[in-house]
Each structure stands twice: as structure tokens, then as C-alpha cells.
């Protein structure tokens, strides 16, 4: 899976306007609604926030990958936000976040969801890519 398969320019928000975790998640869900990738903002937000209750998706090194699974979605969709300011995402390394990659997947298919998470996580673990994005 390539990032180009998940993202179009309409699904990228630079700079993010919000500074709080939940508001940033909402902002990236709004990007997906505007790009006509999803229609139900509330379901998407609830799915992502439920996942956040289990464990933070602030993976460290200034990156967060919030994600969730929702009904009536036929494919994995994503949005990317880059912030010019620090966001407290309760990251596992305790550091603020500036790169947020939101992923939503169909609730009835776990394979594509895990594949997307793995690919995004692997790519964003590279210092060189994070530096280019910022």
C-alpha cells in the first residue's frame, strides 16, 4: 500500500488550526467529509475516540496516528495534518505532536486497516520523512 492510495491533496491539511487533541481529530475528520470520503462525522469521531480510550495513538517522535473502524465504509480512508505548533496528544514518549495521520477503515475488514496502520507507522518512523513534512 502506497500513501498515494490513501491520500489525495484534498485530504491533507497544512497547517492544522487546532491545538487540542480532540479538536485536531475533528478537524481531520472534517477534511474527510469535505473530500467526500465519509459522510457521518459523528460515527467517525466516536470510533476514533473509543480507540483513544484504549491507548493513545500518539506513537512518539512528534507523530500521532489516530484511527478507528466504522460501518458503511467500503475502503480505508485517511487524512494528514501538519501543525506549526505543539499538540499534546498524550504520546507514549511524552513529547508533543506536530504530524497527525488519521485513518478510518471498514468495521468488517481488519486486514486493510492493519496494513494501512503498519505502512503509515513504518514511513513516519523515518526521521528524514518527518523532517520533510515539517
Can you describe this structure?
- This protein has five helices and six strands; from the N terminus they run H-E-H-H-E-E-E-E-E-H-H.
- Strands 1, 2, 3, 4, 5 and 6 form a six-stranded mixed sheet that branches.
- The longest helix is centred in the N-terminal third of the chain and has 14 residues, at 21-34.
- It has helices spanning 3-6, 21-34, 41-54, 111-124, 127-133, and strands spanning 12-13, 58-60, 63-64, 67-70, 77-87, 97-106.
- The protein starts with a helix and ends with a helix.
- The mean pLDDT is 91.
- 40% of the residues lie in helices and 24% in strands.
- Strand 2 (58-60) and strand 3 form a beta hairpin.
- The protein is globular, with a radius of gyration of 13 Å.
- The protein is α/β, with parallel strands linked by helices and 134 residues long.
- Helix 2 packs antiparallel against helix 3.
- The chain has one domain: 3-Layer(aba) Sandwich (Mannitol-specific EII, Chain A).
Name the features.
5 helices; 40% helix; Mannitol-specific EII, Chain A; 134 residues; six-stranded mixed sheet; alpha/beta; 6 strands
Helix content: 25-40%
CATH T-level topology:
Mannitol-specific EII, Chain A
Distance between the termini: 23 Å
Mean pLDDT: 91
Q: Give me the Rg, rounded.
A: 13 Å
CATH architecture: 3-Layer(aba) Sandwich
Sequence-ordered SSE layout with sheet pairings:
Elements: H1 3-6, E1 12-13, H2 21-34, H3 41-54, E2 58-60, E3 63-64, E4 67-70, E5 77-87, E6 97-106, H4 111-124, H5 127-133
Parallel strand pairs: 1-5, 3-6, 4-6
Antiparallel strand pairs: 2-3, 5-6
Amino acid at each position: 500500500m502506497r500513501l498515494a492510495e490513501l491520500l489525495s491533496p484534498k485530504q491533507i491539511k497544512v497547517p492544522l488550526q487546532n491545538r487540542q487533541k480532540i479538536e485536531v481529530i475533528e478537524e481531520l475528520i472534517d477534511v474527510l467529509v469535505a473530500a467526500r470520503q465519509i459522510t457521518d462525522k459523528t460515527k467517525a469521531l466516536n470510533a476514533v475516540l473509543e480507540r483513544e480510550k484504549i491507548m493513545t495513538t500518539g506513537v512518539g517522535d512528534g507523530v500521532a496516528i489516530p484511527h478507528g473502524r466504522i460501518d458503511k465504509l467500503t475502503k480505508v480512508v485517511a487524512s494528514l495534518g501538519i501543525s506549526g505548533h505543539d499538540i499534546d496528544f498524550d504520546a507514549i514518549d511524552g513529547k508533543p505532536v506536530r504530524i497527525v495521520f488519521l485513518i478510518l477503515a471498514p468495521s468488517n475488514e481488519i486486514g486493510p486497516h492493519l496494513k494501512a496502520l503498519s505502512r503509515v507507522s513504518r514511513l513516519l518512523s523515518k526521521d528524514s520523512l518527518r523532517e520533510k513534512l515539517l
